Amino acid sequence: MKKLLFTLLLTSCISFAQDGLTQSSIQAVLTGNQLQVVQLAEAFPEEKYDWRPAEGISSVGEALLHVAGANYFLGSKLGFAPPEDIDIMGLSKITGKENIIAALKKSNEFVLKNITKVEDGTLDEEVDFGFMKSNKLGGLLAIMEHNGEHKGQLIAYARTNGVVPPWSK
């Protein structure tokens, strides 16, 4: 009987210790991705923010603002309203390196702060993101993957323009 009680107590302690593990793990990986995207944004000279690899493809500045907009969009689909001073549809009108980086950083802070507010018991709740139907866990993973996707895009843009990603120097 003592062994059974000990096993039940140990199991409940382990389960309790796992609360929020998924969210905090995603938050940790996303934090690293976001830091590198911001470092790339800062490494590009301002005159390269309008550079694009071909007609019809996002420029450096547009790609950064796209990431910012997606952070707010995906976060809102998970139930978190963007700050009142944010016009998601108006983000594309932001110009200038400093302003674009500020918008990106603010959107990063928004998703990082809200990831851990998604409760474990709701991770399997279905959400219609418009481009896919998934659960909340899928939405959190989409935020992380999307940032990683555009980090890769910006690395290619940087290398093409002679900009070395700061972490690889």
From TrEMBL:
Superkingdom as given in the UniProt entry: Bacteria
Pfam families to which the protein is assigned, alphabetical: DinB
Gene Ontology molecular function, alphabetical: metal ion binding
Signal peptide residues on this chain, from the entry's feature table: 1-17
Keyword Metal-binding annotated: yes
InterPro entries linked: DinB, DinB/YfiT-like
Binding site for a divalent metal cation: 66, 146, 150
The entry's keywords: Metal-binding, Signal
Stated family: Belongs to the DinB family.
Name of protein: Uncharacterized damage-inducible protein DinB (Forms a four-helix bundle)
